[in-house]
Automatic annotation (TrEMBL):
UniProt-recorded Gene Ontology molecular function terms: ATP binding; ATP hydrolysis activity
Pfam families linked to this entry: ABC_tran (PF00005)
PANTHER family, sorted: ABC TRANSPORT SYSTEM ATP-BINDING PROTEIN (PTHR43038:SF7), ATP-BINDING CASSETTE, SUB-FAMILY H, MEMBER 1 (PTHR43038)
InterPro entries referenced in this protein's UniProt entry, alphabetically: AAA+_ATPase (IPR003593), ABC_transporter-like_ATP-bd (IPR003439), P-loop_NTPase (IPR027417)
Organism, scientific name: Actinoplanes digitatis
Gene3D superfamilies, A to Z: P-loop containing nucleotide triphosphate hydrolases
Protein name listed in UniProt: ABC-type multidrug transport system ATPase subunit
This protein's record includes keyword Coiled coil: no
Swiss-Prot/TrEMBL keywords: ATP-binding, Nucleotide-binding
Domain of life, per lineage: Bacteria
Domain ABC transporter: 73-270
Length: 270
């Protein structure tokens, strides 16, 4: 890769993330010209350096903050067993408006089960859930119909939210564009979409109707780095708009992006 190729790749990565490349690319070119070094030695791969530029321009990650809004989700004493195996044992969770909670823990500790209980898709053996507002749910996998196009998904889910056909399509397409969804969302049946694109569709469907509580089960599966960054920018925007958000994750480096952490690992700190 020549310096010109690297600069062109950096410019493309920045444009994809909706950043004007003129300043960053000009500064990088000037440094390379003065130093005589190869860009991979100085800056690393173009995509990685683009992420660093975006983080610097947008202020990296917001500081976690104490929620000031009203409680939107309260789960108290949640216990769930499958046969003789106790998956959740007396778990409490409280999420306020304007708060992002990360739910973490080892595989099999009940993260997805807890989220499904909070979404009303699964009943606990004991305990209860109280909601203050509407709920949107994005599963880790599944959640879409193979033989429906994305537009048809938007219309179907929008109808359940009281959103008309035209508005549901418009909202769905707008949210698709915000996640760098290439091509026309209405063009293909979902069975022909890649895993990452189907997960974008899941995330959009969870957001249709502007719910007050968002329950997201590893929603970025299959996303590339640019879309992953866009996802977290949207999470912070939703938080600023007063949404209560729960994100199930196994990536501990994400914890500086949230306000509160619930560790479901037995003996974990909450």
């Amino acid at each position: 890769m020549t310096a010109d190729d690297w600069l062109a790749a950096l410019s493309a990565e920045l444009r994809r993330r909706r950043i004007d490349p003129a300043g960053p690319v000009g500064e990088a070119a000037a440094h390379l010209r003065d130093s005589g070094q190869h860009p991979l030695e100085v800056f690393g791969p173009p995509a990685a350096y683009a992420l660093a530029v975006v983080a610097g321009l947008r202020g990296a990650t917001p500081e976690p903050r104490r929620p000031s809004g009203e409680p939107r989700l309260r789960a108290t004493g949640i216990t769930k067993r499958y046969g003789r195996r106790t998956v959740l044992n007396n778990v409490d969770l409280s999420v306020h408006a304007g708060e992002v909670v990360a739910m973490i823990g080892a595989n099999g500790c009940g993260k997805s089960t807890m989220l499904r209980i909070c979404a009303g898709l699964l009943s606990p053996d004991s305990g209860h859930v109280r909601l203050g507002g509407t709920v949107g749910y994005c599963p880790q996998d599944g959640g879409t119909s193979d033989f429906l196009t994305p537009d048809e998904h938007f219309v179907l889910v929008g109808a359940g939210r009281g959103v008309g056909r035209t508005e549901a399509r418009a909202r769905g397409r707008s949210m698709a564009a915000a996640l760098d969804w290439a091509g026309a969302p209405q063009a293909r049946q979902s069975r022909h979409l890649s895993g990452g694109t189907r997960q974008k569709l899941n995330l959009i469907l969870g957001r249709l109707g502007d719910p007050d509580v968002l329950l997201l089960d590893e929603p970025y599966q299959g996303f590339d780095n640019g879309t992953y960054l866009d996802f977290w920018q949207q999470v912070w925007q939703w938080r600023d708009a007063g949404k209560a958000i729960v994100v199930v994750t196994h990536l501990l480096n994400e914890l500086d992006r949230v306000d509160t952490v619930l560790d479901l690992t037995p003996g974990g700190v909450r």
